[in-house]
Write a structure and sequence with these properties.
With about 400 residues, this protein is of the alpha/beta class. Helix content is about 40%, strand content about 15%. The chain contains 18 helices and 13 strands. The protein starts with 8 loop residues before the first strand and ends in a 12-residue tail after the last helix.
Length: about 400
């Protein structure tokens, strides 16, 4: 079965996470993605854990992409890059502004040769403006975009210190927004025949996913009332079988407090002087939490409790290690986890595709492999029209970085 983007060619000049995740999303949708890797390699190959020449981090973002490794400091290599761009439907890069232009690979130069190309650049703060030249990684963008401060304001500072997140949201969300914009640009090209340039700023992405930004930018003072429906004030409980789980609804919020009373059949607590206002509920939160916890322990099992909470529109989620959900019946049914070779006899377990299409799920019979650096040099260059003799000369000139032959 053909993938949704079957026939779309992507030249992926990006490295580490934001750009590679963008191109990976297009790959998972069926595109043919060629990763162009510099001699020093994509830094993510060095991450831990690492088996042979491939890290799990690199495999997660790049398995299934073909790999061409060229040294753009060798003039002959630039012709390879230009031909790749000539044949590409999409180009993805996430270098600092000006880097691609230094090699003649910027959008203005490429579109003269390939006016139908969709060219996406992902940076911390965009291509223009006072912050455009700044280096950017997810933790620094989280800090600049207010995410770190919001977390500290809501949950406090452990040991008096600020902390960032354990996951690189700014990179991943920017990659996804890049893929969304590329799909829109491809649709525009289908209608008009013209390509276009897409400028994605990680900081703007993080502002766009802040569901409470309207409140953060207002002058409204809510006191102890919570400004949004979830995520910021979710209580944890222990289930009938000893499971730790989180509820989606705040005990303090005036919107969600009544839902607990409905589930518990305790509407009398609505007028209890300890819980009559958000300020009082927060002040007496330990007592309120204990009342709900004791009610939870009257149930025989989590399934029965879930059914009761579901009637009141309160969702629950058990606190699980990733290994637990990966081994669950749901994960098997969804194909949420896939295994790929690490190229030295072992395997990496990676996320599966997050969507299922009824008509265009693509061919899953051939396992994706994390390519070695330069593994597809000859294959791709032949497709680009280089002769065997020309490829040999490029190899001799060090324009091509040759792959290792020690992997499976």
């Amino acid at each position: 079965m053909r993938g949704t983007l079957s026939g779309v060619k992507v030249a992926d000049f990006s490295r580490v996470l934001a750009g590679p995740h963008c191109a990976k999303t297009l790959l998972d949708l069926g595109a043919d993605v060629i990763k162009i890797e510099p001699p020093a390699t994509d830094f993510s190959r060095m991450a831990y854990p690492r088996n042979g020449e491939t890290s799990g981090y690199y495999a997660q973002q790049n398995a299934g992409k073909r790999n061409v490794s060229i040294n753009l400091n060798v003039p002959a290599a630039r012709e390879i890059a230009l031909r790749l761009c000539d044949q590409a439907d999409v180009i993805v890069e996430n270098f600092r502004p000006g880097t691609m232009a230094a090699f003649g690979l910027d959008y203005e130069n490429i579109r003269k040769r390939n006016p139908r190309v969709v060219y996406a650049s992902i940076t911390g703060y965009g291509q223009q403006g006072v912050w455009s030249s700044r280096m950017a990684y997810a933790p620094t963008v989280h800090a600049e975009a207010g995410i770190t401060a919001n977390t500290a304001n809501q949950f406090g500072k452990p040991n008096g210190s600020l902390r960032t997140d354990s996951l690189s949201h700014a990179d991943v969300y920017s990659g996804l927004h890049g893929a969304i914009a590329i799909l829109a640009a491809l649709r525009h090209r289908d209608l008009t025949g013209e390509g276009q340039y897409i400028d994605i700023a990680m900081a703007a992405v993080m502002l766009s996913i802040n569901e409470r930004l309207h409140y953060d930018l207002s002058d409204v003072e809510l006191g102890d009332e919570t400004p949004v429906l979830g995520a910021t004030d979710c209580p944890f409980f222990v289930g009938p079988g000893g499971e730790t789980f989180v509820s989606s609804m705040s005990l303090v919020s005036s919107l969600s407090f009544p839902l607990y009373l409905i589930a518990m059949r305790r509407l009398d607590l609505m007028t209890d002087p300890r819980f009559a206002t958000p300020e009082l509920r927060k002040k007496n939160l330990e007592e309120l939490h204990a009342l709900v916890q004791e009610w939870i322990w009257t149930f025989s099992d989590m399934a029965t409790l879930d059914a009761q909470l579901d009637l009141a529109k309160i969702a629950t989620g058990q606190v699980r290690h990733v290994k637990e959900i990966a081994s669950s019946a749901w994960a098997a049914e969804w194909s949420a986890i896939e295994s790929v070779s690490d190229r030295v006899g072992g395997e990496w377990k990676l996320p599966g595709r997050p969507w299922h299409f009824s008509q265009t799920n693509g061919d899953r019979s051939t396992p994706k492999l994390p390519a070695l650096q330069g593994e597809h040099n000859d294959e791709v260059l032949l497709e680009l029209g280089f002769s065997a003799e020309e490829i040999a000369k490029l190899r001799a000139s060090k324009a091509l970085v040759q792959p290792s032959r020690h992997a499976n």
